[in-house]
Amino acid sequence: PTGGRAGKTRLDFNENTVGCSPHVIARLKERLTQETLTVYPEYEAARKAVASFLSLDDSQFLLTNGTDEAIQVLVNTYVDDNDEVIILTPSYAMYQFYAEVAGAEVRYVPYRQGTLEFPVDELLSSITPRTRAILISNPNNPTGSWTGLDSIERILAASPRAAVLIDEAYFEFCGITALPMIARHPNLFVSRTFSKAYGMAALRLGVLATQTANAEYCRKAQSPYSVNLLAAIALPAALDDTGYVRGYTAAALESRGMLEAGFSRRGIRFWPSKANFILFDAGSKAVPLRDALRERRILVRDRSYEMPGAVRVTAGTPEQTRAFFSAFDEVWLTL
Description:
By secondary structure, this protein is an alpha/beta fold. The protein is 38% helix and 17% strand. The chain contains eleven helices and 13 strands. The protein has helices spanning 22-31, 44-54, 66-78, 93-101, 120-126, 149-158, 212-219, 229-240, 242-265, 286-295, 318-331, and strands at 9-10, 61-64, 84-89, 105-110, 131-137, 163-167, 188-193, 206-209, 270-271, 277-281, 298-299, 301-302, 310-314. Helix 2 packs parallel to helix 8. The longest helix is centred in the last third of the chain and has 24 residues, at 242-265. The radius of gyration is 20 Å and the shape is globular.
C-alpha cells in the first residue's frame, strides 16, 4: 500500500473497513506492559484458540506471519530450482514472487476469458510430473472467482506429488472451505488470514493447516518467532468475538450486493464475486477514476496493469458503499 491512506475511506486493499473487535483492543491494553515487550513470544494460548476454532489438532497447523509467510514456508519446503509451480492469473502477486525466489519454473493458467470462471480443466491439463506446487486463491483476488470442493478434489487427485495450497483469505465472505478434506489428502494445505474479516492486517497473522507430517516438515523452514507477541495476544480475543465478525461480514455482504446492483443500474460491467470486493470494467477511465476518487477521499484499486480497464472496490459497510457511488457519480461522466 502507498502512504497517505489514514482518514480516507479504504476500499482499495480489502481490509476490514471499520476496525477489529473491541475485545482485541481491550486484551492488548490488559496484557501490554513494559515487561511484556522484553519477552520472546509464547504461542500456547493462541494455538489452543486456533485448534478449537478450526477443529484441528495442535499438530496440524502453523501460525504464520500473515498468509505471505504461509506461502513462503510452503514454497521453501517443497519447491527446488527448476521445479514447476502452477499459478492462476490474474491472482495474488506473492505466489509468483515466492515461486520465482525459489528458482521455480512458473506455469500460468489464465482465468477463463470474458467470464473469469475458474479454469479447472485447463489447470488439470497443465499438471506435469515436475509440478511441485499449485497455488490457488479461493475466492480469488482480484477477480472474485471461486470454485467448489469437487474441483479441488479433482486437482488433488491429479497432482499427488505437488503441494496444493488453497488460500482461503476471503473464506468468511464465501463459506467454502477445504479444511475438512485435509484428513483425506496428504498433499492439501489450507491457509487462513486474520487481515480481512478480523481487521488485524497490521498484526500480520495467519494459519497454514495440513496433515501432521507436513506441518512438522514445514516448521523446519519457519523462523521460530515469526509471529509477533501482540498478534499472539490478540488472536484468542478475536476468535472469541464471533458476533463481531458475523456482524461485519453481514454488512460487507450487503455492500457487495449494493455494488453489484449499483453497477448494473449504471450499465457498467462487473464480475460476480464471492469475496468482499467487486472487480468492474472502467475501460480507459480506470486510472483517472482512481485518481478522481482519491481526491474525494475514496480509495479504490486500479488493476488495469493485469486486466485492461479493471478496477477493484472493497465491499465495506453500506454507508461506505453509498459514499463510493456518490463520489463515483460526481466524476464518472466527466472523465
